[in-house]
Design a protein that fits this description.
- This protein is an alpha/beta fold.
- It has a single domain, classed as 3-Layer(aba) Sandwich (Rossmann fold), CATH 3.40.50.
- The chain has ten helices and six strands, in the order H-H-H-E-E-H-E-E-H-H-H-E-H-E-H-H.
- Helix 3 packs across helix 4.
- The protein is globular, with a radius of gyration of 18 Å.
- The two termini are 21 Å apart.
């Protein structure tokens, strides 16, 4: 979950090798402005339709890439709950996420550093284009903060933390992150890890060192897959 379909699909072989079915859920910037109720209903409907021909209980293992993946899973989860679908979530996997409780308004790391890291990832060389793109990102950041502040609702980062870290504290979690990530800095992920630990969550973590945002699999594919396989063997086997 999270990012373009092409970017997300490269992770599916990890789960296919374990015998799991997968659903790829792309996300875009627009989802930062949409409510969970108006996001990914088609994905939830597709999952419900697949259950019609199966007598097995639905077991979901969300593998969430960045904050967009967290937002996607929460939206799908809400659709399934409201539709009365019975399902179990025995484990969660976070890649380069989530932010800690501070949300858009307060931020451990420099917002400018994080937004500049996004521009860097686009490999734009022209100073003029970099300035234009950086300005657009800053306006977008402010517009997301304003969108949720105006309706008095938690912003997406706060919603991710409240639901996936606090509410779902009983679900075991694997955090895959790095000190080299300047988009979702390690301080943010480690803030979520500390909060989950304080809540008694069973968790594991792997710090991939210098790898950049959502590039940990490309940086160290064997380590990445081994961490997932080991984690799921401990927490999911009884459901399969």
């Amino acid at each position: 979950m999270g990012g373009s379909a092409r970017a997300v699909s490269k992770y599916t072989p990890i789960f296919h090798r374990l015998g799991y079915d997968t659903t790829v859920v792309p996300s875009t910037i627009k989802h930062f402005y949409l409510t969970p109720e108006s996001s990914h209903r088609d994905v939830a409907d597709g999952i419900r339709a697949s259950l019609a021909s199966s007598s097995q209980e639905l077991v979901v293992i969300p593998h969430m890439l960045s904050n967009g993946g967290c937002m996607s899973w929460y939206a799908i989860q809400q659709h399934l709950v409201h539709a009365g679908v019975h399902f179990t979530v025995p484990a969660m996997i976070f890649d380069s996420a989530p932010h800690s409780t501070y949300g858009f308004h307060k931020y451990h790391a420099s917002i400018n550093t994080s937004l500049d890291a996004i521009v860097d990832s686009w490999k734009v060389e022209s100073p003029v284009m970099r300035a234009l793109l950086g300005g657009a990102l800053r306006l977008g950041w402010m517009s997301v903060a304003a969108r949720w502040a105006l309706v008095g609702a938690p912003d997406p980062f706060q919603r991710n933390f409240a639901n996936l870290i606090e509410r779902d504290a009983a679900i075991p979690k694997l955090f895959l992150y790095s000190h080299g990530d300047h988009v979702v800095p390690s301080a943010e992920v480690e803030g979520s890890i500390a909060a989950a630990t304080a809540l008694g969550t069973t968790l594991e973590m792997v710090n991939f060192g210098t790898s950049v945002h959502v590039s940990h699999f490309a940086h160290a594919p064997e380590t990445y897959e081994a961490a997932i396989v080991s984690f799921l063997a401990k927490h999911v086997e009884e459901y399969m």
